[in-house]
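As the next step, I wrote out a protein sequence along with its fold in token form, included below for the reader:
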Amino acid sequence: MTIAMLIPAAGVGSRMQADRPKQYLTLANQTVLEHTAGKLLALPQTSRLFLALSPHDPYFDALPLAADARVCRVNGGAERADSVLAGLDAIDAALFPWTLVHDAARPLVQLSDIQQLIEICLSSGLGGILASPVRDTMKRGHVPGHGPSLVEHTVERRQLWHALTPQLFPTILLRDALRRALAAGVAITDEASAMEWAGHPVQLIAGRADNLKITQPEDLALARFYLEQA
């Protein structure tokens, strides 16, 4: 079964404090986006990769990726969820009954993890996400009138997971859930949160914890280290 691959990459990544969006920062002689897209394009299920980019993106056209016939550029939105919905609107669900969504800033994802996600979801008929069990002690805090946050209590971690990407869902169900959730003003932080809100089950598929998301400047250095070890 052919799966549509979708990368929302319209954000500016302001927390990186860089001169360009984080997806265009360089790692091992390629941009973060090229590393990430390269992983999805290496999957045997990939015939089309949809990239939701800013309409005013000045960087993408200079990349070799822009000339790949499998890549389809669509205009993203102000928020990640808007970009994902724009991508889903461009996908023909008859040709691509499932859509796999992956963060542009997760270039270290392992192909074996993605394949496991695909196999479990397609065999069960249920959508799912890559996730890793929480290992640290978790604290719930509150902010007083001034000063640092204070611990309110310790959170039981045995059933807590870090949500990762890719996330894989039936195209029509995800598009409908995301559209309705956004219309209702629901805060959507990932595709799974829209599916949860709509009442659809979401499977947790254990993935590698080094599938980190580049968000802060120190994440770029860590990603560079992991790539050098590969």
The longest strand covers residues 161-170.
